[in-house]
Amino acid sequence: MFSFFKKKKVLQRGPLLEVDLHSHLIPGIDDGSHSMDESLSLIKGLSALGYKKLITTPHIMSDAYKNGAENINAGLKELQEAVKKKEIPVEIEAAAEYYLDDMFYEELKKPEVMSIRGKYLLFESSYFSKPMQMEEMVFAVGTAGYLPILAHPERYRYIKDPDKEYRRLKELGVLFQVNLNSFGGHYGKNAKALAHFLSEKGMIDFLGSDTHHQKQVKSLMTVFHLEAYHHIFKYNQIKNNELL
User: Fold this and answer.
1) Are 32 and 24 in contact, with CB atoms under 8 Å apart?
2) How far, in Å, CA of 152 to CA of 143, rounded?
3) Contact at 8 Å (CB) between 55 and 21?
4) 122 has which bridge partners?
5) Crossing angle of the two packed helices 189-200 and 162-171, in degrees rounded to 10
6) Quick check: 43 and 87 in contact, CB under 8 A?
7) Nearest residue to 120 via CA among 22, 235, 191
């Protein structure tokens, strides 16, 4: 189906991304960083890669990570203070990565929705099973006043007809945030192939680190030098730096 399994071509570093909008850096509230020391190490690594702003996005998932505005903002404040104390030259903001589950509609009704800059809402679904009401949920995001961003669309195993299924989501107004490390094979061959597909079709709107641990940060430098990374900016209008 895809013809992207060729030898990686390494070039000079590609265009600089100054903003990351997908990570898990607030310690102890999801499957990301486990401690403040780990968070600071990850943030130092991302800063060294050229990021000036990190919009970290803890999971909000009713059966696993019962996060909300109160504890996310409290964790953000502690993280910001620690970053300032360590004099790391990066700005930290917080939004959330919403999971499409039975409580998603209720999350949209809350007084404070953890959106990105008050404009975008980052969401994900099960990797293996497409939500029965996915289109209705996407519509609800728009009704609530936000532009929907689907996190890592290349990683969903239920995508069987990429051209048809991705184009349908685009018709619904969904923006796509692809994980950078997918281009380096971090998530497997299928995710890598679909990332290339989305890139060459011009469907990528945002790029994310989806940082959970140090291995992902270290992998990014390799990705930034890949021919595939250069091609992203040839075929797609990447909006990350608009969030600076």
Assistant:
1) yes
2) 23
3) yes
4) 97, 149
5) 60
6) no
7) 22
Describe the crossing of helices 214-224 and 227-235 by its angle, rounded to 10 degrees. 70
Q: Quote the pTM value.
A: 0.95
Residue 55 parent element (H or E) = strand 53-56
13: Cβ–Cβ under 8 A, 6 or more apart, which residues?
A: 224, 225
pLDDT digits (tens, 9 = 90+) for 144-170: 999 999 999 999 999 999 999 999 999
Flag whether pLDDT at 1 surpasses 50.
no
Please name the residue that has the structure tokens 């091609």. Answer: 231
| DSSP for residue 176 | E
The CB density around residue 115, as the number of other CB atoms within 10 Å, is 19
| H/E stretch holding 47 | helix 36-48
Residue with tokens 């890669």: 49
Q: Annotate 16-38 with DSSP letters as a single string.
A: PP-EE--B--STTSSSS--SHHH
Cβ(28)–Cβ(213) under 8 Å?
Answer: no
Cα distances (Å, whole numbers) of residue 105 to 94, 101, 108, 222:
21, 8, 5, 39
Q: What is the pLDDT of residues 68-110, one digit of tens each?
A: 999 999 999 999 999 999 999 999 999 999 999 999 999 999 9
Give the tokens for residue 26.
Answer: 């607030």
Residue 162 to residues 1, 189, 198, 204, 242, Cα–Cα distance (Å): 10, 15, 9, 13, 28
As given in the structure block, the two tokens for residue 77 are: 């404040």
Token pair, residue 1, equals: 């189906």
